[in-house]
DNA sequence: TTAATAAGTGAGCAAGTGTTCACATATTAA
DNA sequence: TTAATATGTGAACACTTGCTCACTTATTAA
């Protein structure tokens, strides 16, 4: 008599969850995301200063975050102000920080 | 007059957050984690059947999850029963699934 | 128009990752 | 002891990833 195994979440759902975590699973990108929810909105130059990597590297990571719909921007003159696309991301990251602090 | 930029979370904290997300950011590992919180406890063979990758691949990923303190096991005879090490992980994953379902 | 500022792109490359293959260990049954 | 079952390990390899370098685009100022 073998127990029936539960398998409620679809392959596709779990793949999307993995994709989401993978995007947040990089030091540069999580620093950018953290800087954005702490400051609300930042131009690329401010992000570069806070995150301490090169302009080019920041640009590449901003593109990835934008493609995955985690951030968006508002254009003002020649500057772009980036912000989080969805408040849930902040909740998930803060919950994780709390979880890890009880390590 | 430039605004002061907030930078409250330490480099180290954010690095650990990235590490945590990186571990969950793989399809095989997130499937294992999901299978474990759905079923409470599973032996390797059951995990292999639920997750649909080879025994060897599952073993390697179980080791990574164990090293990162996301899972533990209980030994019974020649079998090992794996389970989540901390309920917070389930909360974070479920919250993420909810977040993505409102995509 | 020309120069300066803000931001982005694409190729190249070193480093990292997940799987497979062959082999190893541990426990139980014959 | 021998065989069978359950699980783990390490090297090899293809694939992915994040950075840097050189160059480009867009906007504003001179």
Automatic annotation (TrEMBL), chains A, B:
Entry keyword rRNA processing: no
Coiled coil: none
One BP annotation, GO: response to cadmium ion
Alphabetical list of SUPFAM superfamilies matching this protein: Winged helix' DNA-binding domain
Source species, domain of life: Bacteria
CDD domains with a match to the protein in the record: HTH_ARSR
Keyword set includes Transcription regulation: yes
Name of this chain's protein: HTH arsR-type domain-containing protein
Organism: Acetobacterium wieringae
């Amino acid at each position: 008599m073998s127990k029936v195994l539960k398998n409620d979440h679809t392959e596709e759902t779990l793949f999307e969850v993995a994709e989401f975590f993978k995007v947040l699973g990089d030091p540069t990108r999580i620093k950018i995301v953290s800087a954005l929810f702490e400051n609300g909105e930042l131009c690329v130059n401010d992000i570069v200063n806070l995150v301490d990597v090169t302009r080019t590297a920041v640009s590449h990571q901003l593109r990835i975050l934008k493609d995955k719909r985690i951030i968006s921007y508002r254009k003002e003159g020649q500057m772009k102000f980036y912000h989080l696309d969805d408040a849930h991301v902040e909740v998930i990251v803060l919950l994780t920080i709390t979880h890890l602090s009880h390590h």
